[in-house]
Amino acid sequence: MSKKPVFVEISARHVHVSQEDLEVLFGKGHELTPMKDLSQPGQYASEEKVTIVGRKASLSARILGPVRKASQVEVSLTEARQLGEKALVRESGDLAGTSGIKLVGPCGEVELKEGLIAAKRHIHMTPADAEYYEVENGQNVKVRIESDGRSLIFDDVVVRVSPSYALAMHIDTDEANAAGLSGSTEGELIK
């Protein structure tokens, strides 16, 4: 029997910031202004944007909220090359040994010592979802995406399980382009 498909969405470049860095970038006491809720409960795109400054170029990026313990910048590998920087493929929050990057806001700038990553493709699941798909936290799976002329199977998709998650797979813009996707779609999880 085939399992229900997994919702797949494209995660464009974005920034997560600590409260301390947010206040340097936007002023003392500043709080993020929610603009649009995201698929993960409690997560949102904010009105605030910053400039990511690399050795070769700069790119604008939206800050996602709420604030985090540590600031990080998530870009595609193509965008990292445009910036003149090297982004390691990592899970969100796994920043040790990654490249640093500069963020510029309307009130100041922050030089991150580490934190530039290309997010490892992943599936957010609740414990009930993990039980349904017969997978566990940290497991790598494959996901088949059907598209017009560019169907493919993504390998090395890490399963992330938490009661606070909603079922959704995240890929970056490079991965979406490889599959010929321009918006969200569905995929078949293959163990």
Characterization of the model:
The chain has four helices and 14 strands. With 191 residues, the protein is mainly beta. It has a six-stranded mixed β-barrel. Strands 2-5-4-8-9-6 form a six-stranded mixed β-barrel. Strand 8 and strand 9 form a beta hairpin. The longest helix is centred in the first third of the chain and has 8 residues, at 19-26. 33% of the residues are buried.
What distinguishing features does this structure have?
single chain, 191 residues, mainly beta, Barwin-like endoglucanases, 2 domains, six-stranded mixed β-barrel, 4 helices
The structure class reads mainly beta
Q: Main β-sheet, in a few words?
A: 6 strands, mixed, barrel
Q: How would you spell out the order of helices and strands? A: EEHEEEEHEEEEHEEEHE
How are the strands of the largest sheet arranged? 1-13-10-12-11-14
Helix residue percentage: 10-25%
Domains (count): 2
Total strand count, please? Answer: 14
Low-pLDDT residue intervals, each spanning 5 or more residues: none
* Mean pLDDT across every amino acid position: 96
Counted by DSSP, the helix tally is: 4
Shape: globular
**Rg measurement, Å:** 17 Å
Q: For the record, give the distance between the C-alpha atoms at the N and C termini, rounded to a whole number.
A: 14 Å
